[in-house]
Design a protein that fits this description.
There is one protein chain. By secondary structure, the chain is an alpha+beta fold. It is 48% helix and 11% strand. It contains 14 helices and eight strands. Helix 1 runs antiparallel to helix 14, helix 5 packs across helix 9 and helix 6 crosses helix 10. The protein is globular and about 55 Å long. The model has no long low-confidence stretch (mean pLDDT 96). Bound molecules: glutamic acid (GLU).
Length: 309
């Protein structure tokens, strides 16, 4: 294990990485299929790190709110496992898919059991499990309540315009939900699951709030104790193997840490025992993962030596 960087070293590293990534100006393109996200200026970059000392360090646009999108799948998974426990795994697997986030291909050959909880099909099953007979409002209150508790910030909210924007254009997710339903892997009506899922994805957070929310997964001292060590370890394993869809291997290769990305351009990255990191830059690469955000994460893991390998 390399020694933890000092406060000044860490702050200097962040400022240098922020400068380097901005100078490269290779931003990628914001998600085009959700109209509210398509309009966002790509040349933005935020980084926040909460470390084991209890301090948070930031650079760039770390206080700009963004749509966390699929990063919410981590919080929905924690909530669903808390609710129904390991029974969830009868309905969704734990293997990387090697396919895009909204792919239908494996779902057909594997009889409606999604590969993992982070591809959209798996996340729809998780949302369905979270609903279990409740109104969408109640399930959403549970996820939002969990996010607020983890980040110790009650100001975090759902951006209803983003949810509506996705609802209006989310044909692929609708197809996935109906396909899951045809295999009896949804208990609720597909439209109810979809509406809940779109709102869960539309939670808005800053890098600082997201890094705060990851402290429990990183097992940092003083973090809210809402999940056991074993569960945190397993969710980190899933983030490492499945958190970036068909770009998961590449992220593990470049960054060497568990991470979950979202098409809003955010990535939550966990350095177990050391730090919780959030990066955000809205332009995406060909896999739908933040382009400049991934570069910032790679530079950070190189500078700190925080790889799990
Ligand atoms: N709400 C997005 C969708 O379902 C989330 C995808 C992502 O962030 O990767 O398409």
């Amino acid at each position: 294990m390399t020694a933890a960087p000092s406060r000044t070293e860490l702050q200097d590293m962040l400022s240098r990485i922020d400068c380097d990534v901005r100078a490269t100006a290779d931003w990628g393109v914001p998600a085009q299929y959700i109209p509210q996200l398509a309009q966002i200026e790509p040349a933005q970059l935020g980084i926040a790190i909460c470390d084991a000392s209890g301090e948070c360090f930031t650079a760039g646009d770390a206080s700009v709110p963004f749509s966390i999108q699929s990063v919410s799948k981590v919080f929905a998974l924690i909530a669903a496992l808390g609710r129904i426990g390991d029974q969830l795994w009868y309905r969704v697997g734990r293997e990387p898919s090697g396919t895009s986030f909204d792919s239908m291909v494996l779902l057909e050959s594997e009889a409606g059991r999604p590969r993992n909880p982070f591809v959209n099909a798996g996340a729809l099953v998780v949302t369905d499990a979270l609903l279990s007979g409740r109104a969408p409002k109640q399930a959403l209150a549970e996820v939002l309540g969990l996010v607020r508790a983890l980040s110790e910030d009650d100001a975090i909210h759902i951006d209803a315009d983003v949810a509506r924007s996705e609802q209006a254009t989310g044909a692929r997710n609708k197809a996935l939900a109906h396909y899951l339903d045809s295999h009896k892997n949804l208990r609720e009506e597909p439209e109810k699951v979809l509406g809940t899922y779109f709102h869960q994805c539309a939670i808005e957070m800053t890098c600082v709030q997201l890094a705060m929310a990851g402290r429990s997964l990183a097992g940092l001292p003083g973090a809210p104790s809402v999940l056991s060590e074993t569960r945190a370890r397993r969710i980190n394993a899933l983030m490492m193997t499945c958190g970036h869809y068909d770009g998961s291997g590449e992220f593990a290769f470049r960054v060497g840490l568990p991470g979950k990305s979202g098409v809003g351009g955010g990535i939550l990255i966990i350095a177990p025992g050391r730090a919780s990191i959030a990066v955000w830059s809205p332009g995406l690469d060909e896999y739908g993962n933040s382009k400049a955000g991934t570069r910032a994460a790679a530079l950070l893991s190189e500078a700190t030596g925080w790889s799990v390998f």
